[in-house]
Amino acid sequence: MPDLTGKVAIVTGCASGIGAATVRRLVADGAQVLGTDIDAQGGAALCQEIGTRFAQQDVSDEQRWDEVVAEAVEAFGRLDILVNNAGKVSGRSIGDVDMAAWSQVIGVNLTGTMMGCRAAIRAMTKNPGGASGAIVNIASTTAITPLPTDVGYSASKAGVRALTKSVATWCAQQGNAIRCNTVIPGATDTGILAEAEKATPGLKQVVAATSPLKRLADPAETAAAIAFLASDECPYMTGADMLVDGGMMSLHPGF
């Protein structure tokens, strides 16, 4: 288990799913965590249960990023970890997407992630002891094999992969110890999937079948990968994609 004792983390989209599991895991590993979510009720309840801090945040709001990072630094004295987990789907194909739906999903998934990286790096460069930290951006298997039914989500998550690599290499060229990696979850049992199941009964079974393991991932399994990347266990790992997909991307679709 990674030792995150003394580390300070921000986790976005903490109210449910992978975000909630990540807050639980990082706290269990010793980190001090500020969880954020646009869902104030759900996020606050989760953080209160765990005994950590919460701040309401719309990750597409540039000013709010500066405020949230400042709150973490003021409360804990530094920032070591950022998990850009907050995300949004549009459910719109290229045939029916409008600019409002496109702009909203790009604003949250891609622009929000970029602004998080920027704000975190500014804080991490001022850490006592020198510039250091770990940023973990959450993408999706749709970044590799896009969904025809959601052009905005697919494009934004592909953008997150490229963004991560750009951030990672820039930080490396600056000579600091700030790393940036991507986690790519596969079919995961989250609230988004549960809501979709209501509209499409049997969807979970169909989605689970896309993995050779023939099951959905528990969010805690993805959180474990995030905790590893956030820790000091992998100091030479930056700009990488870590698949947590149950083998989905390894299987030919014909089989």
Keywords:
255 residues, alpha/beta, Rossmann fold, seven-stranded parallel beta sheet, 45% helix, 15% strand, NAD(P)-bd_dom_sf, SDR family oxidoreductase, oxidoreductase, SDR_fam, Sc_DH/Rdtase_CS
In a few lines, what is going on in this structure?
With 255 residues, the protein is of the alpha/beta class. 45% of the residues lie in helices and 15% in strands.
The amount of beta strand, in percent, is: 15-25%
Low-confidence stretches: none
**Which class in CATH terms?**
Alpha Beta
The topology string of helices and strands comes to: EHEHEHEHEHEHHHE
Output the CATH topology: Rossmann fold
Protein name: SDR family oxidoreductase
Keywords: Oxidoreductase
Family: Belongs to the short-chain dehydrogenases/reductases (SDR) family.
What report would you give on this structure?
With 255 residues, the chain is α/β, with parallel strands linked by helices. It has a single domain (8-188, 217-247), classed as NAD(P)-binding Rossmann-like Domain (Rossmann fold, 3-Layer(aba) Sandwich), CATH 3.40.50. The chain is 45% helix and 15% strand. The chain is built from eight helices and seven strands. It has a seven-stranded parallel β-sheet, sandwiched between helices. Strand 4, helix 4 and strand 5 form a beta-alpha-beta unit. Helix 1 (17-28) packs parallel to helix 2 (40-50) and helix 4 runs parallel beside helix 5 (151-173). The model has no long low-confidence stretch (mean pLDDT 95).
